Amino acid sequence: MNAHRRDFLLLVTLASAVATPALGQTVVPALGSANSGTQAAASIPDFSGIWAHPSWPSVEPPLSGPGPVVNKSRLRTGQSNGNQLVGDYTNPILKPNAAEVVKKHGEISLAGVTYPTPANQCWPQPVPYIFWTIGIQILQQPDKITILYSNPDHEVCHVRLNQPHPAKVTPSFYGDSVGHYEGDTLVIDTVGVKTGRPFAMVDIYGTPYTEALHVVERYRLLDYEAAKEAQERGFKENRRLPHNDSGLDVDENYKGKGLQLQFTVEDEGVFTMPWSAMMTYRRAVGAWPEFVCSENRHEYYYNKDAEVPTADKPDF
């Protein structure tokens, strides 16, 4: 397969250096209030289980309003060309410095070179970058939500329920995530994503971010027909990949509810305005294979080993 698909199909290798802890930053409170009380357990929707959106390479544009950077390179079908990632740097959401970064990544791709990303270099993938992942598993507990991702790093997001962000958030690879329920919707608010690290980007097109990055996720269940329609609409932008490294596909025999993620991204250092996008999931079928990303270090298309993170001394 073409080397440009490696962002999804191989996701092997990694760059060097473990960043030192950053200074704490002051942030705005999360959406909702930690003092507003918790929703009755009987009325909390059941998001638990394994869900899949077998598409590549990016997220679904919103039905209206400002949307994400999309791929300028298209297949004959009109879908995004996952073998050539050329972000649309003319998207009005981008400030000039961010547009230039996206443009340079596209030029690399047009030259036939696969540029490094946190996915193909095995680096931590914070939100919203990680939303490309084919499969997720949601675990619901009274005081927290855990989201597992089916990418080769088997990454995980820990969400504290009905709690505020700290007054000063210490930046970390995945940021600080807190959540609460609003009726039938799970709302997750993330700030404090570390910037002083290699491959810091919010999407596969290289769009950068700053310490002001703020992501709000909203998960809700959709009726079968609505979920199927939304996912089919998403396949008009992104190519469906029923056979993929995640081992997961949609269970076409399952006629129950689907899951839709609507998320909003704001970062005054990069974007001229907040923008939003979606991901629509349905119940998954298939095996969730075990990967060890950093054990597959050789980049066959460069004929070299990737720069796997190292440390001067053990962490334990």
Helix/strand order: HEEEHEEEEEEEHEEEEEE
What is the number of helical segments per DSSP (H or I, 4+ residues)?
3
- Structural class, judged by helices and strands? mainly beta
Strand content: 25-35%
**Lateral strand order in the biggest sheet:** 2-4-5-6-8-9-10-13-14
Count of all domains = 1
Uncertain segments of ≥5 residues (pLDDT<50)? 1-28
Quaternary organization: single chain
Instruction: Characterize the largest beta sheet: strand count, sense, and whether it forms a barrel.
Output: 9 strands, mixed, barrel
Mean pLDDT across residues = 87
Instruction: Please give the alpha-carbon distance between the first and last residues.
Output: 40 Å
What does this structure look like?
The longest helix is centred in the N-terminal third of the chain and has 15 residues, at 96-110. This protein has helices spanning 6-9, 96-110, 224-234; strands at residues 25-26, 49-52, 55-56, 135-141, 144-149, 156-161, 168-169, 176-182, 185-191, 214-222, 239-240, 248-250, 258-266, 275-286, 298-299, 304-305. The chain has a 9-stranded mixed beta barrel with strand order 2-4-5-6-8-9-10-13-14. A two-stranded antiparallel sheet has the order 1-7. Strands 3-11 form a two-stranded antiparallel ribbon. It is built from 3 helices and 16 strands.
Short description:
It is built from three helices and 16 strands. It has 316 residues and is mainly β. Strands 2-4-5-6-8-9-10-13-14 form a nine-stranded mixed barrel. It has a two-stranded antiparallel sheet with strand order 1-7.
